[in-house]
Structure formats: structure tokens, C-alpha cells
Design goal:
Blueprint (H helix, E strand, L loop, with lengths): L1 H5 L5 H31 L8 E4 H18 L3 E6 L6 E4 L1 H17 L5 E11 L3 E10 L21 H7 L5 H11 L3 E6 L5 E11 L11 E6 L3 H13 L3 E5 L2 H14 L3 E7 L7 H12 L3 E6 L16 E3 L6 H10 L16 H4 L5 E5 L3 H13 L3 E5 L2 H10 L4 E5 L7 H10 L9 E5 L4 H10 L3 E4 L4 H15 L1
Parallel strand pairs: 2-4, 8-9, 8-10, 10-11, 11-12, 13-14, 13-15, 15-16, 16-17
Antiparallel strand pairs: 1-3, 3-7, 4-5, 5-7, 6-7
């Protein structure tokens, strides 16, 4: 309800009070979740699963969820993921996300200026297994040396004044440490008071086999180089992935090209910088591009001759490719930036921009037995531009699906008689019903068992109540784009 009220045009004082209610409610939920999670740890009921997942997509989605709060504080949220390792790995994405959420959330909470940087690199690898280092680095208030040894103790804050000013259960770092231990790693911290902090841990993962490269849609490139052979190799790789490329030879022209693309194209832009063509002016060039385009471009430095030491590479560079052999590092670097821009198999290029051009409102069916939740979902989704139809039971949902065409259905998991999962089962078992419609399950049950039940039933995603409207809208667009 607080999110709904904040979307209204209210006077500033009232809006600030409602925002305080929203923050307090989310804070209370976090406290409850932390206590439940720690109870599971104490009773040795944590289950670590092994499943295939896309690490880049996971990290991107985590960062998206923190973008607004970081932006409101004037903090830059950055990611630096090495392209030297595959992004399709096998592990427990749910537990990894819990850990990163805790560490990134804390970093943003205790940082008032500067940045929070999420770094991922490979520390050891074989053909089938890899060990990855995760780092969360911030320019925040830091931790006094004498407090470092207790930072992972339960119900501990680095200072009593921290609890009063920032809140928190004192369990976040404890839970993170325990989960990392369960997954086969250990967490460490480096910090100094007033100089920021660095939390880091290593985790082992299996590597997915026989992952085929895919083509991209909605991504274009500009390559800054004077080397024709370098340009030819880049073009060969980009053409393989359905990415058009424009060669740029002069720095002044590069800025103009970037601004022109941003102003006239709906596609996402990446800029490839040839290290041999930049020499000592790299920092100036990157600064000029960022000042002109902000975060609307993804910068990739291609340094196959090791011209730049890591300390000399500007933070604004998103990825560094040091090997162009077979194009794998370049492919990984691109996927870091655009994991949701892969073109589904069998989809024609003429349909790539369907949603950008299609002005029809998406038709959403919502099945929710709570009248209050129906009211809130209807208001939120209608304000977001969707055509919403409401029903209060699973039986009514099945009937509506038979009668009308919907782009997506949102279901409460635990409705009386016919719950959300029952609706999905019946939908998929009924041959007369059209196939392929995505389903989102809403539930207050955040257990692994609930997640497994949703997955087994065929739900595309399940979201925890109370719903974050920005997350819900983003997932609706993502799922309906996949459908097309």
C-alpha cells in the first residue's frame, strides 16, 4: 500500500512520511527473514542445491534491485566481472543471491559517497570445475581494526551507535558466513575506519558442458581502433552473434557516434576500445565518454598485448578482454552487460523489436483471494500501463483463461480449493487451452520447498509478498518478451 501511495502526486511532507512507512515495513520484513534464516542454520536445516544458472544474469538482477537506493544516495553501483571464465555454472543461485544481497545491502547502507563495486574473478579452474572469487568493495565508513574479529558474530554490530543510526538485526554477515561455509567457502574482510571495506570469498562451482553460443538482439557496437586486422577479428566475432559494428578511428568522432546512437537508436550500445590505439590517453577518453553518455554505454577494453596494468585501468571500464582467440572472452564480456538480450532460438530478426513497436497494452489476469491484495495489484498494474482483469479464485482463473486471451497470468499460491499451482497444472494438462502463457506465482512462503514446488509446477517465476511493484513490472516485461 505504501508503494501505491508513493506513486500518487502527494505533497512532499506526506510523501516523506509514507516513504518512512515503506522503509520501516521493509526493514521489519528483513529482520523477520534474518531470524527465520538463522533459525534454520542453528538447526542444521540448510539445504545447498546444485542447479545450472547464469551467473551474469543473477548478478545483473541483484544490481537492478539495488539501483534505486544507490542512486538516491548518490552512490555509483558498479560491477566488474572477469570475462576469463564461463557464465553458465552449476551451484546454488538462491543461496549465492542471499549472500550477495546481504553484502551489497550493507555496503550501500554504510556508504554515503563514492561507490560500491561488485567484482568477480577466477582463482582456479579446470575443464569441469572452477573456483570464483566474489568481492564487494565500498568507499563507506569502514570498520575499526578491533571490531573486525567480531564482525561475523551473531547479533553483532560494529558499534552500538550503528544500530541506532542504521538499524539491522546484526545477523546479515553471520548468515552470509554460514551460507558460504555450507557452499564450501570462507569469507574474509579488510577494512579501516573511514576508508571503506572489502568483503571477499571464494566458492567452487561445476561448469555446464556443451553450452552453445547464441545470437543477440537489440545490441550494437562501436569499435575504436586504427588496426585493420584487429577490426577484422572483432567484426568476425560480432557478426557471429548478430551484432552490427561501426569502426571509429578518431576520439572526437567516437563521442559523436556514441551520442548519435543514444539519441536515435532503441538498441543497447557497447564501445570496444583497442588498447594499442589508446596508449596514455585512455583515462581521458573514458572520462569523456562517461561524461557524455553516463551509464547508457558498456565499455570493453581489449588489451591483448598487456599494455595496461590493472591499477592503470579506469573504474569506468566494465570489462577487460585479454584474449581474442576463438572469441570466448569477448562473448563472455558482452554477456556480462546484456544477459537478457539473447535472441531465443527460432525467433526471426524481424520480430526483435516487437515490444518496442507494439503499443498494445499487455493483458494480465490476476487471481488473488484477498480483496485487499486484489485492490493493490489492480492499482499498481493499471498505473504501470497494463490491462488488468481480476478474479478471486483458482476456478475463476481457469474459466477466464478458457474464455479470453491473456499475455500473462499472476496467481496467488495458496488460494482455497484451487491454488495457484493447481491452476498451472490444470492449464498445462488441458489440450484445449493455448500453450505458452507465462505464469507468475505470488507467495509469502520463501522456503526452498515452495520454490521447488513452483518450479515443478511450471511457474516461470515466483515472487515474495509483499510485492515490490518495480520487480513485478520488470518480470512481466521480461517474460512477455521471451514469449514473443
Amino acid at each position: 500500500i505504501s508503494q501505491l501511495l508513493m506513486s500518487e502526486y502527494l505533497e512532499q511532507k506526506l510523501n516523506q512520511k509514507i516513504k518512512a512507512i515503506d522503509i520501516s515495513a521493509k526493514h521489519l520484513l528483513t529482520l523477520i527473514d534474518d531470524i527465520i534464516e538463522y533459525s534454520k542454520i542453528e538447526n542444521d536445516k540448510i539445504i545447498i542445491e546444485n542447479q545450472a544458472f547464469d551467473l551474469h544474469a543473477l548478478v545483473m538482477n541483484i544490481c537492478i534491485s539495488f539501483e534505486q537506493i544507490a542512486s538516491e544516495k548518490g552512490i555509483r553501483l558498479m560491477t566488474h566481472i572477469s570475462p576469463a571464465f564461463p557464465f553458465n555454472i552449476i551451484g546454488d543461485p538462491h543461496r549465492l543471491q542471499q549472500v550477495l544481497n546481504n553484502l551489497i545491502g550493507n555496503a550501500i547502507k554504510f556508504t554515503h559517497q563514492g561507490y560500491v563495486d561488485i567484482r568477480i574473478s577466477s582463482v582456479d579452474a579446470s575443464d569441469s570445475r572452477i573456483s570464483l572469487r566474489f568481492e564487494v568493495v565500498d568507499t563507506g565508513i569502514g570498520i575499526a581494526y578491533e571490531r573486525l574479529k567480531t564482525i561475523f558474530h551473531r547479533f553483532n554490530q560494529v558499534d552500538d551507535s550503528i544500530t541506532r543510526e542504521y538499524g539491522g538485526s546484526g545477523l546479515g554477515t553471520t548468515i552470509s558466513k554460514e551460507l558460504i561455509n555450507y557452499m564450501g567457502g570462507d569469507i574474509h574482510v579488510e577494512s579501516a575506519l573511514g576508508k571503506g571495506s572489502r568483503f571477499y570469498f571464494d566458492l567452487p562451482f561445476d561448469i555446464q558442458e556443451n553450452i552453445r553460443e547464441q545470437r543477440y538482439t537489440g545490441v550494437i557496437a562501436a569499435t575504436f581502433t586504427s588496426n585493420e586486422q584487429f577490426l577484422h577479428r572483432i567484426n568476425q566475432s560480432l557478426k557471429r552473434w548478430n551484432i552490427s559494428n561501426q569502426a571509429v578511428f578518431f576520439a572526437e568522432e567516437l563521442t559523436e557516434v556514441v551520442l548519435r546512437y543514444i539519441a536515435t537508436s532503441q538498441q543497447q550500445l557497447m564501445v570496444l576500445l583497442d588498447a594499442e590505439h589508446n596508449d596514455n590517453n585512455l583515462r581521458h577518453l573514458v572520462s569523456r565518454l562517461r561524461n557524455a553518455a553516463g551509464n547508457q554505454i558498456h565499455l570493453i577494453l581489449v588489451d591483448t598485448v598487456n599494455r595496461f596494468q590493472p591499477k592503470d585501468i579506469p573504474f569506468e571500464i566494465n570489462s577487460v578482454v585479454v584474449n581474442l582467440l576463438n572469441g570466448q572472452q569477448l562473448y563472455n564480456a558482452i554477456h556480462t552487460a546484456f544477459p537478457d538480450s539473447l535472441q531465443p532460438e527460432g525467433r526471426e530478426e524481424s520480430n526483435n523489436c516487437h515490444h518496442a513497436l507494439n503499443q498494445d497494452r499487455l493483458k494480465i489476469l490476476v487471481a488473488e483471494d484477498s480483496s485487499v491484495n486484489r485492490l493493490i495489484l489492480n492499482e499498481m498494474l493499471t498505473k504501470a500501463g497494463f490491462d488488468v482483469e481480476l478474479v478471486e479464485s483458482g476456478e475463476d482463473a481457469l474459466q477466464k483463461i478458457e474464455e479470453k486471451n491473456f499475455d500473462l497470468t499472476i496467481l496467488d499460491m495458496q488460494m482455497p480449493r484451487v491454488g495457484g499451482l493447481d491452476v498451472i497444472h490444470k492449464y498445462k494438462a488441458t489440450k484445449s487451452l493455448k500453450e505458452g502463457m507465462p505464469f507468475i506465482i505470488l507467495t509469502a512462503n520463501i522456503s526452498k520447498e515452495a520454490e521447488r514446488q513452483c518450479k515443478d509446477a511450471g511457474a516461470d517465476i515466483y515472487l515474495q509478498k509483499p510485492i515490490d511493484i518495480k520487480v513485478l513490472v520488470r518480470e512481466i516485461h521480461r517474460l512477455t518478451e521471451k514469449k514473443d
